[in-house]
Write a structure and sequence with these properties.
The complex is a heterodimer. By secondary structure, chain A is mostly helical. Chain A is built from twelve helices and no strands. In chain B, the strands form two sheets. In chain B, strands 6-7-8-3-9-10 form a six-stranded mixed sheet, with helices on both faces. In chain B, strands 2-1-4-5 form a four-stranded antiparallel sheet, covered by helices on one side. Classes of the chains: A mainly alpha, B alpha/beta. At the A-B interface, helix 1 and helix 6 of A face helix 3 and helix 4 of B.
């Protein structure tokens, strides 16, 4: 009798919660899969025409080779135990990814003017997966910048940490950065809707984001108001984490854990917001 | 519930479907039904509200008022279900020129959850069906306008939808390419039994492709029936659909079409040509 009851109980448990669990897990699997499909789409485009990656290489090279070398000589900026070129190399990596990602959102205006966005929106793909997929494609472009900056840093005798754990940490950090600023730019694109306005806003944002961060000078040198801004700028946490992960003897001001926590939280927030706004781009 | 049953009999059913943009009633309280298996044409000049109508039915645009169901699902409350049942080819260019034809289809096969084991075959079949096998591995930016349209239709058919929405499928194509697209649309219906809902402002297209035609003017349906019925309704069975159209919409063919819309249409035409 008791056995029977148990049997009945377990079948009812199975019939109620199994489909629920299955539904949740299949939703998650589907989300991940469609996200990767969108990222794959972008990677395939890049493979057909990789010139973009080459032109993108010019700016970080200038910063490191010209600006970096000159300021290392002058020793004008106090960077503790680090040489200035060591100090700024992670900053320039973060900056080059910022510059790629912040204009990434314009692609959805292009794709809206064609009908490509319409087709994606009519498919059953979750909206947030469309945004995250795009964000990951910005990360792929970011990785190419990382390879370039690492190469230049090697030539400039920056003390790079080659431990596998550090490299994985750098990888995760730049994926998050690219995801943050590309989703942010996608949100801007959804709001302003035209290329002209988007370019204006993109131009207006890049330099302030860069200067209000610890990329090329420590936060402690900033006036109070700028310090306050730098603390709400995700780029600051990005550079802080990179500086600790990328360099031998590099240290983090806020702790790598909290840096990554902040970056992850901002990514999730922006992807959700982007997913909400994405459909409005065709209206 | 009899209301529910009625909704399920027809593949598309709208009741007082309305969409406003500011003071403009782009679609003004349209009630119509489309039966499974037919080719239904929405005709009207630019700016009549055809694209707005299609955007609402494909869940891209929420209606301001009224309701509609597609394949038995409410377009607002059950949008995700609607999306699984439909295919859509927008008026504007929607194939990605920087990818090959094969890649364009492969990505959508993945987005529509076509199992890995079937994917390759499904994509190859769709390309073959649309006569694009030889061009499969070429970048789409090197395709002709007619080939792009056929590719887009192939893309929208991959998951075997119950209903296909084609917004101005032959806009900007030369007469020969248009004929090829028409033949493929007819074969799609014959081979797959898919319902086709298309918009066009070419009357000859509506006449030769559609089982039933709704004439749209300033957001309203002003006439609806088979091409033959519409001709009889104006008292001249030998009339062209052009004459029927003029009869119902007045002589003012020059209406609507904002700057933005015109620029988009021209760009599409330019890219397809």
């Amino acid at each position: 009798m008791r056995l029977l009851e148990q049997g009945a109980l377990s079948t009812s448990w199975a019939s109620v919660s199994q489909p629920f669990l299955e539904r949740v897990s299949s939703t998650i699997i589907r989300f991940v899969r469609t996200t990767l499909t969108i990222a794959e789409l972008e990677a395939r485009k890049l493979r057909h025409d990789p010139t973009e990656l080459l032109t993108r290489a010019v700016q970080p090279a200038l910063w490191l080779l010209v600006f970096g070398q000159v300021f290392t000589q002058t020793r004008a900026i106090p960077t503790g135990d680090l040489r200035y070129i060591d100090f700024m190399a992670p900053g320039i990596l973060a900056q080059s990814i910022l510059f790629i990602a912040i204009f990434h959102g314009i692609s959805i205006i292009w794709e809206r003017d064609l009908g490509i966005v319409h087709k994606f929106l009519v498919s059953p793909t979750p909206r947030a997966a469309l945004v995250l997929g795009k964000a990951l494609s910005a990360s792929v472009r970011g990785l190419s910048q990382a390879i370039l900056v690492y190469t230049l840093a090697l030539l400039l005798h920056v003390k790079i940490s080659w431990s596998p754990l550090a490299l994985i940490g750098v990888l995760i950090t730049i994926i998050l950065e690219a995801a943050i600023f590309s989703s942010f730019s996608l949100i801007v694109a959804c709001l302003v809707k035209t290329r002209e306005r988007f370019m204006g806003i993109g131009q207006m944002l890049t330099m302030p984001l860069f200067f209000a961060s610890n990329a090329i000078y420590p936060v402690s040198l900033m006036p109070g108001w700028l310090q306050a801004i730098s603390h709400v700028n995700p780029l600051t946490y990005e550079v802080d984490a990179l500086r600790a992960l990328m360099l031998v003897g590099g240290t983090s001001a806020y702790g790598i854990g909290s840096d990554l926590g902040v970056l992850l939280a901002v990514t999730v927030l922006l992807v959700i917001l982007g997913g909400r706004l994405y459909p409005t781009v065709v209206i | 519930m009899p209301g529910d049953d009625a909704m399920h009999n027809s593949i598309v059913q709208t009741q007082g479907l309305t969409r406003c943009f500011g003071p403009l009633r782009a679609v003004d309280a349209i009630t119509l039904t489309v039966e499974a298996g037919e080719v239904f044409g929405l005709v009207g000049p630019n700016g009549a509200g055809k694209t707005t109508m299609i955007k609402m039915l494909t869940t891209l645009l929420p209606p301001t008022a009224g309701k509609a169901s597609v394949a038995g699902f409410d377009i607002v409350r059950q949008a995700a279900n609607v999306r699984r049942c439909i295919g859509y080819v927008p008026q504007v260019l929607s194939a990605d020129g920087t990818l090959t034809g094969y890649e364009n289809l492969l990505i959508f096969a993945k987005l529509y959850d076509i199992p890995r084991s079937e994917r390759e075959q499904r994509v190859r079949d769709a390309l073959a069906f649309m006569g694009l096998s030889d061009a499969a591995d070429k970048l789409v930016r090197n395709y002709s306008g007619g080939m792009i349209r056929r590719l887009e239709i192939a893309q929208s058919m991959l998951h075997h939808p119950m209903i296909l929405f084609l917004d101005e499928p032959t806009i900007g194509l030369d007469p020969l390419a248009r004929k090829v697209v028409w033949e493929h649309i007819e074969r799609l219906r014959a081979d797959y039994g898919v319902t086709i809902f298309l918009t066009t402002h070419y009357m000859d297209e509506a006449d030769s492709l559609c089982n039933r035609v709704a004439i749209m003017h300033l957001g309203k349906v002003v006439a609806l029936g088979t091409p033959a019925e519409l001709k009889v309704s104006i008292g001249n069975p030998d009339a062209t659909l052009d004459e029927v159209f003029t009869h119902y919409t007045g002589d003012i063919l020059e209406s609507g079409g904002s700057y933005r819309e015109t620029s988009r249409t021209r760009r599409t035409v330019y890219k397809l040509g």
